[in-house]
Sequence to fold (329 residues):
Amino acid sequence: MRHVKVAAIQPEHIGLAARYSPYRADYDNDADAIIENYVLKQLAVTQSLLERAGAEGCDMVTTCEDVSVLGDFAIDVTSKNILVKLVKQARPYMEKAFSEMAKKHNMHVIGCYLQEEKGRIYNTATVFDRGGSMAGVYRKTHLPANEAWQCTPGDSLDVFELDFGKIGICICYDMMFPETVRVLKLKGAEIVFHPTFGYGWYDSIGEATLRTRANDNGIYIVTSKSYLPNGAGKSSVIDPWGHVLADAGFEKNTLVSKRIDLDTGKQQPEWYINSVMSGGIADVAERMRRERRPDLYTAITEPSDQPAYPRQPERLRILEGIRAGKIRW
Fold:
């Protein structure tokens, strides 16, 4: 038996003061003030919930997406743009906090925040091991339009081997593409951790998407979503059958956790007809892996010949539309 206690936090999003909002044409782009009055205050909320996870004896906990809350600035493509500067200033605070929390409570921590590397910005989830060291880095591979204006997508779906088993990570929009979880499962992941800010195309389909991904791949999914007044919280732990084992509901500043057994997997009884007919393979996920027909799926990997996002002039028009209240953000 490989029992592991997994957890996901559900923090309140404190919100950006109007004067520092890039959605206003006259916003104050004082990087130091934004870090102090916004980034660090949001980080403190996250830290308090990670403390609770540690006090509960969790083996692994994930934050929600973009704990640095700098995604708000990704849409600013004007001369006031200071996203790179903000990301550089915020990163040391993020990594120090997650590393110290992991080491203090002898638990693995996934912290999701923006990182800058060689002038490029990535939406990143970093795995910190029980000693506080970085054990893996995943960069979000599927970017919605607003992120793609200033962020760069990652180029690999990675599996990380920890002391209790193998994990994968999907960040927010990644989960909308069924291929991501399928690839992680085929690479050996037993749990997919899902830091997110959104909850599917709309709230009621969010849980259905997560349950379907878990069931289709015979894998655990642990989702951490921020609490928003106008959006679903519902951070959760879902088992390989698609059952919701634990759900944070719509409560703000809370934690959801569950002790799971990675050796249970998605097993049917040995006497079940499909187990017998397949030569005694009771593991449903293993049966599906063997029964796949990759030769039929080649259309999935054919690239699109159409550009995904608008060019710079159109982006500026969109931004002005948001600032003028003509486009709802």
Q: What stands out?
A: The longest strand covers residues 108-117. The mean pLDDT is 93. The CA atoms of residues 67 and 113 lie 5 Å apart. The radius of gyration is 20 Å.
